[in-house]
Amino acid sequence: MRKVLIFFAVFFLILFKAQKENLSSYNAISLNYQFNSKYFLFTEVQLRGIEDFSYPDYYELKGGIGYNLTKNHKPLIGIGRYVNYTEKSLSKEEFRIFLQDVINLNSGIFKFENRFRAEQSWFYEPKKSAHSKRNRFRYRLNISAPLNSKKVEKGTISANIYDEVFFVIPMKPSFARNRFFAGLSYQFNKEISLSSGYLWQREFGVISNRNFHFLYLAFSINLENLKEKSTQNLNIND
Q: Is the domain defined by 2-237 classed in CATH 1.10.8?
């Protein structure tokens, strides 16, 4: 419990500092469906209030299919639509195809998630009637650990931090973004968890940089094909 209280104290100190600039909202719901022993489906919806915390001016909808090479190695291919609004009117929309690879490493109670992603994007700006495209490469190191149990199970509170770097082609500068997150998650049951925390994002520009401070809130749902799982168990028992 002391670890949780210390974490919240640091979290609110950072949040107080962020309010001196502009506090934005970052909300997400994700669903993973394991439909057999090897393949799974993924989908996620995000809403962000970037300029105004209470009014969403960005949304994304993405999904994909992944393959379990091993328990800790899960490549995925996905597509998505991403939309920005300025003054309550659509300013930019994006269609994206991405390849992702996730490799998990475990040491004691700590889980180290390495996520690599390569993206190809096509943009349209209706106000300018302009088209453009972009290649982007991302790497995220996510470290998590349970605080009140030895493993993640029902009722577990976990601490989570990650840092993610973004590199783009052909835009300049090539190192375009850095994103840092610190937060807590709560495991309601095997299927559902809730995460919340502080997310800091720096956008690097040719002339100047810009910081964003997000209050992050996300629900995660993980489902399995119980029929196939029970069949597999039956075969093993036989």
A: no
Amino acid at 222: N
d(CA 14, CA 31) in angstroms, rounded, equals 30
**DSSP symbol at 70:** B
Residue with tokens 């799974």: 40
- Asked whether 183 and 216 are in contact (CB, 8 A), the reply is yes
DSSP alpha helix (H) spans, the chain:
2-18, 226-237
Q: What does the domain layout of the chain look like in residue ranges?
A: 2-237
Per-residue pLDDT of the chain (238 residues; tens, 9 = 90+): 555 555 555 555 555 554 557 899 999 999 999 999 999 999 999 999 999 999 999 999 999 999 999 999 999 999 999 999 998 899 999 999 999 999 999 999 999 999 999 999 999 999 999 999 999 999 999 999 999 999 999 999 999 999 999 999 888 899 999 999 999 999 999 999 999 999 999 999 999 999 999 999 999 999 998 665 544 444 434 4
DSSP states along 137-172: EEEEEEEEEESSSSS--TT-EEEEEEEEEEEEESSS
The answer to whether 169 touches 154, Cβ cutoff 8 Å, is no
Gap between the Cα atoms of 163 and 113, Å rounded: 11
Which pTM value belongs to this model? 0.87
